[in-house]
Amino acid sequence: MSTLSDTGINQSFKSGLPETHASVSSKLKRLIDIVGAVIGLSITVLLFVPIAVAIRLDSPGPIFYQQTRCGLLGKRFRIWKFRSMIPNAEYLQHAVQNQAKGLIFKNEADPRVTRVGKFLRRTSLDELPQFWNVLKGEMSLVGTRPPTVNEVDQYDLRHWQRLTVKPGITGEWQVKGRSTIRDFEQVVDLDLRYLQHWSVRYDLLLILKTIWIVLLRHGAY
What we know:
The chain is mainly alpha-helical. It has helices at residues 27-58, 115-123, 130-135, 149-152, 157-160, 172-176, 184-197, 200-216; strands spanning 64-70, 76-82, 140-142, 168-170.
């Protein structure tokens, strides 16, 4: 088991970790990220008031949820979402059965999710604030699933490969199954597939597929 430092990648992995993926240095990918983030944040501003009111009426507490995640080469950043769970839900996770296998947590009927939160998740509206992370360069529109610090603390060298790209709002896991994927190794397989097949054209294809899947509300809970 490794221990992640505050600055990012653990020293014990430096000698064996693959180099940064080519997508990280692509200026066209970054341009698409900026344009997409501006559009996404514009939509977020338009929907902010009704979403914020609904969240507060349904469950007293903050409008936004923030959590430390690991990005490129394990560098930590603060991810933002609209809150879909009761306040302090992380401290109650031990009381909820994990229906997933490996270094992820999923429960189809998680009692911590609020009524409004279920709608936000089904429609993916809870993820709109992540466009701010994209604009800041901490995330990309398309990439690998952004892991938690606790997950990365348990990574082996194979798992670390998925951190050679920026995490994405969407990616192979989003298109191929979203919440229905309950095996962490399957998530890793999909992320590594993305690394192998990446191109700007492939990113655009995954974005279009994601829009279609979100509209159909397929695989989300």
